[in-house]
Write a structure and sequence with these properties.
The protein is α+β, with helices and mostly antiparallel strands. Helix content is 42%, strand content 12%. It has helices spanning 6-20, 27-37, 55-67, 77-89, 92-103, 218-234, 261-271, 275-287, 294-319, 327-350, 366-373, 384-395, and strands at 109-112, 128-132, 135-142, 153-159, 170-176, 182-187, 196-207. Strands 2-3-7-6 form a four-stranded antiparallel sheet, with no helix packed on it. A hairpin with an 8-residue loop joins strand 6 and strand 7. It starts with 5 loop residues before the first helix and ends in a 22-residue tail after the last helix. Bound molecules: flavin-adenine dinucleotide (FAD).
Length: 417
């Protein structure tokens, strides 16, 4: 572990940016430099292209990059989830094959976990993988696949042993999205966008070499992905919402990187609840003569308090002292509570203007965006109710909720579809 402080890290990044950044580079050239420096994902171990930093130092890197108004690392789930999962469970060849191409934005990834009858009950998934020589044949349906329409690869969970109990017969694959038998259909959200998709898989193929973490060990590997997801989402990091897209489908790698700066800045202020959001709300309250309104004042104080609590929760997890092991779950829950509270206070301040959304909308539509997006984080990465179940069982030691027979073969369990 490094002895550097956040202040020292920020200084190092500032010096590096001064040398490396030019708005006239292409996106692909800039990301290659970022990847080579270790700053694309500084939490990864050094032998996987990172710097082995803890989360607070990685956030210091991101803050310094943002302060220089340069484009950040590739957006999406490859950097946030696939790279750390492969770094932990992949063999040497898989690490060398997949991680560098994620860090420099060559490949975009999606997460092929949820299915129509397997969301909270993820281990009930029915997509199957059957061995055929040195390949697996995959068939099934995934849903809510964020970024599936621009993904080159998917983190795929599939059932490799229906005779085993449900958590024990699942495997985790690196799945090539560009092949016959894969159909991606967009689903439109109330934000107006179609960020997520249904993915239909009909006899697609995966080489045995792309099995991550060993046969029938997919539940353990998936839990790494989910833990990283919870910790990243709860601490407001992860980049899944960034705007500059990696991969071969989005076709942004060859464009001039300087042309993306204003978009990154706008998203930074719209998607994160932190000091910037609080300053924006305080300014709006003052402009509307609401700075003495007790409801607004209490709301802003509450948002500030929740944000600080979450920061300390993350620091406590890092220190590892008196750790309950459920800090990532608490971080995600607290992050969601803060987001909803921010939405409510913001709409109290702007009143009916909250219903107007378009190019001329107040603050670029940041509050309207926050409002329609706010239910999402309480569902993805495991719903709030599931986080509470985990906290009560693993953190507080309460009895497990009744569930399926843990020893019964998956094929014999009752199913909805
Ligand atoms: C914006 C967004 C993006 C997403 N992106 C992805 C993605 O990229 N890849 C992917 O694989 N999935 C993705 N998901 C899917 C997400 O992980 C699931 O929606 C989530 O796990 C819930 O599953 P479900 O929708 O099937 O709801 P269900 O599991 O059917 O749950 C319905 C309701 O019942 C509650 N519930 C269920 N079981 C319990 C229980 N045991 N105790 C208490 N309450 C319970 C839930 O909390 C929820 O309120 C995304 C979802 C959203 C909203």
């Amino acid at each position: 572990m490094t002895d550097l402080t956040a202040e020292q890290v920020r200084k190092e990044v500032a010096v590096w940016v001064e040398e490396a950044w030019s708005p006239d580079l292409t996106v692909g050239e800039w990301w290659k430099r970022l990847a080579a420096s270790g700053y694309a994902h500084p939490m990864l171990p050094e032998d996987c292209g990172g710097k082995g930093y803890p989360r607070d130092l990685a956030q210091a890197v991101n803050r310094e990059l943002a302060a220089h108004h340069v484009v950040g690392p590739p957006a999406g789930l490859g950097l946030m989830l696939a790279a750390p999962t492969i770094a932990m469970h992949g063999d040497e060849e898989q690490k060398a094959t997949f991680i560098p191409r994620i860090l420099d934005g060559t490949d975009a990834w999606c997460q092929l976990f949820s299915e129509p009858a397997a969301g909270s009950d993820l281990a009930g998934l029915q997509t199957k993988a059957e061995l055929d020589g040195d390949e697996y044949i995959i068939s099934g349906q995934k849903v809510w696949t964020s970024g599936g329409q621009v993904a080159d690869w998917g983190m795929l969970l599939a059932r490799t042993d229906p005779d085993a109990p449900k958590h024990k017969g699942i495997s985790y694959f690196a799945f090539n999205m560009h092949q016959p038998g894969v159909e991606v259909r967009p689903l439109r959200e109330m934000t107006g966008r179609a960020m997520f998709n249904e993915v239909f898989i009909d006899e697609a193929r995966v080489p045995v070499a792309n099995l991550i973490g060993g046969l029938n060990n997919g539940w353990a590997v998936a839990n790494t992905t989910l833990a990283v997801e919870r910790a990243s989402l709860g601490s407001g990091g992860g980049g899944a919402l960034g705007t500059v897209l990696p991969g071969s489908v989005a076709k942004q790698l060859g464009k001039r990187v300087g042309d993306f700066i204003h978009i990154e800045d706008a998203v930074e202020s719209a998607a994160s609840v932190g000091s910037d959001t609080l300053s924006m709300l305080s300014r709006l309250a003052a402009e509307r003569g609401l700075q003495d309104d007790p409801i607004v004042r209490q709301g802003l104080a509450e948002i500030y308090t929740l944000t600080q609590l979450n920061r300390w929760n993350v620091s406590r997890a890092r220190a590892g002292q008196r750790s309950s092991g459920v800090e990532p779950n608490l971080a995600k829950l607290l992050g969601n509570i803060t987001l909803r509270r921010t939405r409510d206070v913001a709409n109290h301040i702007i009143g009916p203007e909250g219903t107007l959304w378009g190019p001329d909308a107040l603050s670029g539509g940041a509050i309207q965006e926050l409002t329609v997006f706010s239910p999402g984080p309480s569902i993805y990465g495991g719903s709030d109710q599931i986080q509470l179940n985990i906290v009560s069982e693993r953190g507080l030691g309460l009895p497990k909720e009744p569930g399926d027979n843990k020893n019964m073969p998956f094929k014999d369990l009752p199913k909805n579809v």
